[in-house]
């Protein structure tokens, strides 16, 4: 019995040689349904060196411009790890050239910019996804199953998330993430993005009603946020707090409290080990007799994966691209929708900081 | 060679037969330098039953009033687990009768009331301590040593603490902690007390500059707080958030983030196991190559104890009483000082809730 040959892999072009592109390039090469056919940098030599250093297929083209990648008819999809301030221009340009867009976060400087990107993707019928890797770890779905269990977790009451890293002197001087003309959102857009996404994810993507920045923000001399926090208040009840920073030890926490249960994870952004994702739950916990100890104690759950989460992200993205290409499917709306909600909350927290820590109402 | 006999144990009177008094009575009997000589209730029969059920020494007296305990010349010190609204009267009365005071938390309905208690203790030269048990676990000192290590922890950046328990229907209907005339502070005074103490402890007892309640508070019909949260902002920089509740799963978290390290503990109020106190630290954590994983992974530290933390609390309190009695020492000021700071923050969060979630300035 004859079977159809597997669909040909999605051919990626890499637009820019940022450090994070090394990790995502490896992911594209690891994913079974994708490959790399081109890379563009402002210098062709830099692009060629990047291709070589990262084990690109020998046939991959190294271009001295981003435009050349978008003009290459062999490129199906682009991965864009450029500075945030360049996202609108290049993501829109890519979509106009019918390239599917995998966009590094923060996806834009604000929701209005993102809306231009999403409109371009929509009008071209290309898939859009932001590069939030942890969403694609099997652990994320397993944690969600716990949160959805009314008996073991129940009504959502409170969420706390931290993502911080101690970025060091060189980063604080030279990284694009601390330059007001390249990424004015600083730690809020970079590290805070993950916390906000985690909170939205835990709340089934219901948008908070208000965002209030915490009264302690660190800025660099150019006014870029180096650390901040916020509280979010959900219309159906429940509250979330987050803290993000370039000036604190590398920490990646989510804790989620429900009426009947509690979940925590300590490496949600990047698992400590690539092939296992542990998380810890407790349900229907009671004090033991005389309030000495508790019953039951927390349980460690472990989700295993052969592919690292970033390769699973690429695999998911590429499978959506293949569906569009092979079946004429429409682009999957989930990814632009949650990307936009994340950006809206980023914007609200930024506005609360700018306005002196007042509560900012969130409207979709 | 003759040695001095050990000082005679501190003789406790128990003022009220609340449930928590069972645990503390056991602790008094476990501690090597204390014993129980009397218990008072509004009914002598109830006091006698309580003494019997909790293994009091046969000679212990069971009184039908609280006054009788304070009038008993054999009583050196009292433990007061009465409803919060009665603390001022009975703690002041005890101090006036020269009884040392171990006071259940929340210690008073507000700082002004507590000041009356502390003034009475001060003028009588008796020791005051609030019954915040976890302060006395050896784990607490071990965690503090980590936080004080500049190389491994560094400057304090952010703290989050949760204490919640799902109290159940019977509690929500009948417990003194949800009755406006008995304990109008509700979950904030009860569970929130621990979170606030944890935050102050982590911040070396520097008082926050402002307290802002989070915009999601649950009240019962009588207006007593069943759940709430707050953010605290420290004058030297650094921010803390807390969440306390009678309506969420039993959860007891502290996470403390510094420039160079991170500490978390999951059972800070009541250790999961009575004789071990685990906590988790990470210091100088870096992303591994390609930002795949981190180095080093967190370390589990375990503090062991033969006596449960509540017995260590009693032992510490009794040792201070013995120093006063044997050496004419002055009462140790640390305990009233941190109790008062905790109450001041409770008051500020309550005021922020009452005023519609505005930031409330904290003045000592």
From TrEMBL, chains A, B:
<comment type="similarity">
    <text>Belongs to the Gfo/Idh/MocA family.</text>
</comment>
<dbReference type="InterPro" id="IPR000683">
    <property type="entry name" value="Gfo/Idh/MocA-like_OxRdtase_N"/>
</dbReference>
<feature type="domain" description="GFO/IDH/MocA-like oxidoreductase">
    <location>
        <begin position="148"/>
        <end position="263"/>
    </location>
</feature>
<dbReference type="InterPro" id="IPR055170">
    <property type="entry name" value="GFO_IDH_MocA-like_dom"/>
</dbReference>
<dbReference type="Pfam" id="PF22725">
    <property type="entry name" value="GFO_IDH_MocA_C3"/>
</dbReference>
<feature type="domain" description="Gfo/Idh/MocA-like oxidoreductase N-terminal">
    <location>
        <begin position="10"/>
        <end position="129"/>
    </location>
</feature>
<dbReference type="Pfam" id="PF01408">
    <property type="entry name" value="GFO_IDH_MocA"/>
</dbReference>
<dbReference type="GO" id="GO:0000166">
    <property type="term" value="F:nucleotide binding"/>
</dbReference>
<protein>
    <submittedName>
        <fullName>Oxidoreductase family protein</fullName>
    </submittedName>
</protein>
<dbReference type="InterPro" id="IPR036291">
    <property type="entry name" value="NAD(P)-bd_dom_sf"/>
</dbReference>
């Amino acid at each position: 019995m004859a079977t159809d040959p597997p669909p040909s892999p999605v051919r990626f072009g890499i637009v820019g040689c940022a450090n994070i592109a090394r990790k995502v390039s490896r992911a594209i090469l690891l994913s079974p349904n994708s490959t790399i056919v081109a890379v563009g940098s402002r210098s062709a030599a830099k692009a060629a060196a990047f291709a070589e250093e990262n084990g690109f297929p020998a046939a991959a083209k190294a271009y001295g411009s981003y435009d050349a990648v978008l003009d290459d008819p062999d490129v199906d999809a682009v991965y864009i790890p450029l500075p945030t301030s360049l996202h609108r221009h290049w993501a829109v340009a890519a979509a106009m050239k019918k390239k599917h867009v995998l966009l590094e976060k923060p996806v834009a400087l604000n929701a209005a910019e993102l809306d231009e990107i999403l409109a371009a993707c929509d009008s071209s019928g290309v898939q859009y996804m932001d590069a939030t890797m942890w969403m694609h770890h099997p652990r994320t779905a397993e944690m969600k199953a716990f949160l959805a269990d009314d008996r073991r977790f129940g009504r959502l009451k409170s969420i706390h998330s931290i993502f911080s890293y101690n970025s060091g002197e060189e980063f604080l001087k030279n990284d694009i993430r601390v330059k007001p003309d390249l990424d004015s959102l600083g730690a809020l857009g970079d590290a805070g993005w993950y916390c906000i996404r985690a909170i939205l994810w835990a709340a089934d993507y219901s948008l908070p009603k208000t965002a209030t920045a915490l009264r302690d923000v660190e800025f660099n001399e150019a006014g870029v946020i180096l650390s901040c926090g916020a509280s979010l208040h959900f219309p159906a009840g429940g509250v979330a707090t987050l803290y993000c920073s370039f000036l604190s030890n590398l920490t990646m926490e989510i804790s989620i409290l429900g009426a009947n249960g509690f979940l925590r994870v300590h490496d949600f952004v990047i698992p400590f080990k690539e092939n296992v994702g542990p998380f810890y739950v407790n349900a229907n916990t009671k004090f033991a007799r005389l309030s000495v100890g508790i019953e039951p104690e927390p349980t460690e759950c472990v989700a295993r994966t052969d592919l690292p989460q970033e390769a699973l992200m690429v695999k998911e993205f590429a499978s959506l691209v293949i569906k569009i290409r092979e079946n004429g499917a429409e682009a999957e709306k989930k990814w632009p929708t949650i990307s936009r909600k994340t950006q809206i909350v980023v914007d609200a927290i930024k506005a609360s900081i700018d306005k002196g820590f007042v509560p900012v109402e969130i409207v979709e």
